[in-house]
Amino acid sequence: GAVVSQHPSWVICKSGTSVKIECRSLDFQATTMFWYRQFPKQSLMLMATSNEGSKATYEQGVEKDKFLINHASLTLSTLTVTSAHPEDSSFYICSAGRVTGELFFGEGSRLTVL
Amino acid sequence: SQQGEEDPQALSIQEGENATMNCSYKTSINNLQWYRQNSGRGLVHLILIRSNEREKHSGRLRVTLDTSKKSSSLLITASRAADTASYFCASLGAQKLVFGQGTRLTINP
Which A-chain residues 49-68 have CB contacts (< 8 A) with chain B? Predict the structure, then answer.
């Protein structure tokens, strides 16, 4: 089956720094990528939808200047958490969509901001 | 809230019993999907049911969909300890996949 790779799988950073998370579709071209955030024991909340070559569409309440999304190619999308604070600590998961509509999820990236 | 509801929020049963989880969603959908998540891990896709389907089977899984009630159910038959996980429904509509709140299932040996 199709594989979506996320990197890093976990990261610890100091408050005020920026962290970049990569999401790659390894064996297919992803027309659309989605970024989700999941707090402990809660469900996945959609943060934004990114389409290759265009600006991401953010969900209500998600700060686009805080969570920068770049979808520079059909196989790579990045999420940068800028000036991270402890409340940004969470599990971030990406998913990549094929033109057929199938979605494949990465293994997630756990961010801890000290 | 973008999310639908799932019930129960937590379910604990004995190994061998059947587990049923329900999910409701809010908008029109193209399809509804069920996922499993082990603690701290990514999502595993279990089964997809299209909006024009009413029931679907895959191994020990049975999914139903009632678009008039905007609801779906997932039945896991003959549960095993390895089925312990969180289960989420996710509705695909308007090119977005929106997740329910999830059911934490515990299978006791």
Answer: 49, 59
What are A37-48's pLDDT values in tens digits? 999 888 999 999
B43/A47 Cα distance (integer angstroms):
17
SS3 B5: strand
- Binary contact (A45, B95; C-beta < 8 A): no
Closest to A80 in 3D by CA, of A23, A9, A19, A4 = A19
Whether pLDDT at B98 is above 70: yes
Burial grade of B1 (CB within 10 A; 0-12, 13-18, 19 or more): exposed
What residues contact B52, with CB distance under 8 A and at least 6 apart?
A: none
The encoded tokens of residue B76 equal 């896991």
